[in-house]
Design a protein that fits this description.
This protein is of the alpha+beta class and 360 residues long. The protein has 3 domains: 113 residues, Alpha-Beta Plaits (2-Layer Sandwich); 163 residues, Sulfite Reductase Hemoprotein, domain 1 (2-Layer Sandwich); 56 residues, 2-Layer Sandwich (Alpha-Beta Plaits). The protein contains 11 helices and 14 strands. It has a 5-stranded antiparallel beta sheet, covered by helices on one side. A 5-stranded mixed beta sheet has the order 6-7-8-13-14, covered by helices on one side. A hairpin with a 2-residue loop joins β10 and β11. α3 packs antiparallel against α4 and α5 runs parallel beside α9. It is globular. The structure holds iron/sulfur cluster (SF4) (2 copies). One iron/sulfur cluster (SF4) binds next to α8.
Length: 360
């Protein structure tokens, strides 16, 4: 194949793209040769390379779900002050990469005035709250993760723009029990409280082997209804995770009357000190009270304030609880310890902690 023919081919759209194509020129020039970084203020980092080059990183909290117009505004600001270079962090912060110190202040002004985004989220602050895809892309949501982020961030804003906690605090909200938001210091998840309701007529159009296979505890089995193939759920085995609902919409698990929210704490992915850790249930049975979820906001603030008061410098939330003990945690926060805090689900294979994402 000639070079001309190769050039004519469309670029590959599968696999990881070459990230170096999108790096800021200073990042590329000093790749692997960065000496240190220092904090200029909350939300602004100064990275210094061995060559003496300096790159400023300005971090702003984005609403995550954005219109094309907002994204264009972000790009215009990046074109003006950052040679067009920016990046999004895994928690949907937008980071502007600035090569000239004189551009930092005007950039911050533009971000705050034109976009209305706060600058912060670095170090011992609350980073932008991560939420799962929700109703925009997913067919499972039992609540509005994006809405609860907005309501929560309104309450926790001061901890995004100032670093006043023992260490960084990552919060996530998920709109079903599957919790595709992953681990976080504080996570808000939906909990269902009964097995899915099977609509025999609708189930007829689902792919039964796939639905049976997706259940993590083998609670679904084939049956017949009115002489036609259908599915049934063994209620004693079902742990109400809702995975089958994603595979077959006629296995409806969501219930506006009984679904609740729970708060899990102590998860982290970092390898620092004690390594990655799983979240554990802290608060059970909060109402799914849209549009502001005030009960959830109060509970999260209680946890944040207790951690602020009791955590030692650099101690992550889970490490603080581990040091003082769970008994003391429940005493300090006043949350009730219930039977649901005990992992006694006998149908789990060993324990559901074997999966990083399903822990009910
Ligand atoms: S948390 Fe559940 S409902 Fe929400 S986006 Fe993830 S899988 Fe879908
Ligand atoms: S809700 Fe989860 S545990 Fe229950 S039947 Fe569906 S997939 Fe299985």
């Amino acid at each position: 194949m000639s070079v001309q023919e190769v050039k004519k081919k469309a670029p590959r759209d599968n696999g990881a793209p070459d990230h170096k194509l999108n790096l800021h020129p200073l990042m590329l020039k000093n790749y692997g040769k960065w000496k240190y970084y220092e904090k200029v203020r909350t939300g602004v980092l100064k990275r210094v390379a061995e060559s003496g080059d300096v790159l400023y990183v300005v971090r702003a909290g984005s609403p995550r779900t954005m219109s094309v117009n907002v994204i264009r505004k972000i790009c215009d600001i990046a074109d003006k002050y950052c040679q067009g270079f920016l990046r999004f962090t895994s928690r949907a912060n937008v980071e502007f990469l600035v090569g000239n110190e004189k551009d930092v202040k005007p950039l911050i002004k533009a971000v705050e005035k034109e976009l209305g985004f706060p600058v912060g989220g670095t170090g011992a602050s609350i980073s932008n709250i991560l939420h799962t895809q929700g109703w925009l892309h997913c067919n499972l949501p039992g609540t509005d993760a994006a809405g609860s982020v907005k309501a929560l961030m309104d309450e926790l804003y001061k901890d995004f723009v100032k670093e006043k906690l023992p260490n960084r605090l990552k919060i996530s909200t998920s709109c079903c029990s599957i919790n595709c938001g992953g681990q976080a210091d504080i996570a808000i998840n939906v909990q269902h409280h009964h097995p899915p309701r099977v609509d025999d007529k609708g189930v007829g159009v689902c792919e039964h082997p796939k639905v049976v296979a997706i259940c993590p505890v083998a609670a679904i089995r084939p049956t017949t209804a009115d002489g036609r193939p259908s599915l049934e759920v063994v209620p004693e085995k079902c742990m109400y995770c809702g995975a089958c609902h994603g595979q077959c919409p006629s296995m409806e698990i969501r219930d506006a009357k009984t679904d609740t929210l729970s708060i899990w704490i102590g998860g982290k992915a970092a390898s620092t000190r004690k390594g990655p850790s799983f979240m554990k249930l802290a608060v059970w049975g909060l109402p799914n009270n849209a549009p502001r979820w005030p009960e959830v906001g109060e509970a999260v603030k209680t946890i944040v304030e207790a951690y602020r008061k009791g955590g030692k410098p650099y101690e992550r939330l889970g490490e603080w609880v581990e040091r003082i003990g769970w008994k003391r945690f429940f005493e300090i926060t006043g949350f009730p310890f219930t039977k649901y805090h005990i992992d006694d689900f006998k149908n789990a294979r060993a324990t559901l902690n074997t999966s990083t994402h399903v822990r009910l």
